[in-house]
Structures are given as C-alpha cells and as structure tokens.
# Entry
Amino acid sequence: MAKLRAASIDGKLSQEFAVPSHVDDVKELMSAFAELHGSAGRKVVLITSGGTKVPLESRTVRFLDNFSSGRRGSSSAEYFLDSGYAVIFLYRHRSLYPYTRLYSGINLLDSLQQGSGSDQVVVNQEKLPKIDKVLKRYQQVKKEGLLLPVEFSTLSEYLHLLKASAQVLCTLGPKAMFYLAAAVSDFYIPASDMPEHKIQSSNGPLQISMKMVPKILSPLVKDWAPRAFVISFKLETDKSILLDKARKALETYRHQAVVANVLDTRRGYVVVVTPDTSAELILTDDEESKEVEIEEKIVSNLTGAHTLFISKQDGPS
Ligand code: 9Z3
# Structure
C-alpha cells in the first residue's frame, strides 16, 4: 500500500511538474561526483537549501515563495566538509552559498581600495573579517572537488533535481546522507491549470486555488534511496505543535531523523528527533557571543548518528 502511494507520487511528478531541460546533464555530473568520492571511501551528503518558487503564470511575473535565506544549508555544508564529507549543494539561485555567505551583507566595492599601481586593487581585510582563512579553505575545497553546487529556482526544478540526486546517491547505500533543509512549498498550480499570460488586475480581486504538492519524501525513502540516511527539517511558527509534527513525519516516512525548529528561534534552538530519541541543541549566550553557529552542533549530532547507522547496516566488524 505504502509502496503504491510512493509510486503514484512519482507518477504525478512526471505528469504535473515540468522536467527541467538540464536534468540529465546534472545527473551525469552528480553520478561522476558520487563515483569519485564513493570510491575514495568518502561519505556524500546532499544538502538542499533555500526556498522554492511556485509560479502563478507560465510566463511568470508573479510567484509564491517559501522563506529561507539559505544560511542553515550553506553553513551546514561547511561543517560537513570539515567533517570529511563530499557535498552536493542543491540550492535556490542567489540564496546563501558556503563561504561567500560570510560576506553576504558586505558591499564589495566598500571592501576594496585602489592600490599603488593604476591597475592594482587591494582588499581591505578589516572590512572582510577572516578573509585569508576563509579563502584558503574555499580554495582547498574547490581544488579537491569536494563541493558540487546545483541550482534550482522553481518547485519543479527542485523536485526533479532531488529525484535525480537520490537515484544517483542510492549507489552509495548507507554512506549517502540527505539533509533536506530547503523550505519547500506545500502548494502549487499544475501546468495545465496555469494561465499563460500575466494575470490582469482589471479582472478584479485575485482568487487562486492551489493543489497539494506530492510528498516527495515518501518515494525518496521507499524507492529511490532506501538505504540512505535521510534527515528532513520541520519548520513551524507555533512551538506547541512542533514536536508532534516532527514525530508524525517520522512515523509517516520512516526516515532517520527530523530537525525541528521554530522560525523565530531557529538560530539558537533546534530539536533533533529520531524514532527513539529527541535531543535539544541550544546555543548559550556565551557561545553566541563567540559566534558559534548552531549548525556546528546539528552537523556534529547527525554525523555521529550517521556513523552509527553505517556500522549497523554493515553488520558487526
Ligand atoms: C527548515 O526548517 C530550515 O531550518 C529553515 C532555515 C528554512 C528554517 P534559513 O535558510 O532557515 O537559515 O533562513 N527547513 C525546512 C522547511 C520546510 O519546508 N519543511 C517542511 C515542513 O516543515 C517539510 S520538509 O512542512
């Protein structure tokens, strides 16, 4: 029954969500990446980050967006890289990106100065804190080919690229992790119901009816990457329903963990919920003043759980 439901979600995905033209090319890149790092004995994590965009018109002027700056995903990517993982970073176009995120609020031109020669430009390091250290790490990650960025904008792109990544990473069995931090729309308008042109205000107030987005976690866990370690995120604005919702998600999809967070407090408090445990991760005032990030704690918790998961699947050594 559950299998059938997962299969029908997969069918809906092909029928109602336009397949991006570059999906096969991206799949090839991801496949080469997985093979390279898998054969080097590395674990690979697929991180999703940023919010999906749902168009209201085919020639899109307006769209429904899900809130996410991409900070959770991009900072987590850095901690996974520091823990020895190779990272596929499936992120919303123009949302925060690993390493460059640290300078996202800075005006580039304000951080540069004219050098002594007429064609020389000098970096003002005071305006770009820790730039030497960050640049070194960024270049090292790039040289070793440890980070594969893949962009999405629309919900359709997100869904198809996530499916492609799961079909590729399943070859790594339990060594693959899915860290689904992107904020994904629950609602969409099927291509067949969508007006082609810009909706006209001269027609009066706008009423839209949207369909429920199929729950992609279901085929991902059951069919596409059944041996992988899968983490979803649960976002609420009402704390009183958060843990119930997280547990319900675990019961429904039977994956390994849910990271539960409330919008306003997400930078300093999350709960990692598994079928048997629930761990509160909190940033103390002292840690906050030292600019510790909660993602460091989340990644440390989950990489530990992932190692255990792999050893259990491999059997006793
Ligand atoms: C999250 O809950 C992320 O932690 C945030 C991170 C989006 C809050 P930022 O990017 O924020 O650092 O600004 N992501 C998951 C959100 C989501 O759409 N979850 C769905 C839900 O809650 C289920 S997978 O129903």
Residues 68-72, 180-181, 183-184, 232-235, 261, 266 surround 9Z3 (CB under 6 Å). The chain has one domain: 2-105+124-197+207-314. The two ends are 36 Å apart (CA to CA).
